[in-house]
Amino acid sequence: MKTYIISSSDVKYEANISMEDTPLEIVKNFCEENPDDAQYIFSNEKAHQQLLRDGELDEAVSVFELRDVEGHPVRAEWGEPLCQQPDIKEGIAELEAEDMPICFVCSVVAIVA
Predict the structure, then answer these.
(1) What CATH number does residue 50 fall under?
(2) Which of 18, 25, 39, 109 could serve as a FRET partner for 79 with CA atoms 20 to 30 Å apart?
(3) Which domain of life is it from (predicted)?
(4) What is the pLDDT of residues 33-79, one digit of tens each?
(5) What is the residue range of 44's domain?
């Protein structure tokens, strides 16, 4: 599915995602497919390396949110496939019905030890 990932600095990147993937898998795939652009969805290089190396991020602070038809955020659970998140599925269905782009705001923060 064609979507957009929007960084915390409001820059939009095109991405193809699968509803069967978790947000964590989507971010990892985005990093592999768009290494130059991926750096902008991370709070810093430590967060980028921590995700790539260990598959970890601070879930309490990191954000993966769908923007609904009114522009409101719909927070996704990092470890759940999108297809198993009713609010996300409903939001995407509404966006598709209105022929609006599917956009996820993403910001990844490292775990502080």
Answers:
(1) 3.10.20
(2) 39
(3) Bacteria
(4) 998 888 889 888 888 888 888 888 888 889 999 999 999 999 999 99
(5) 2-107
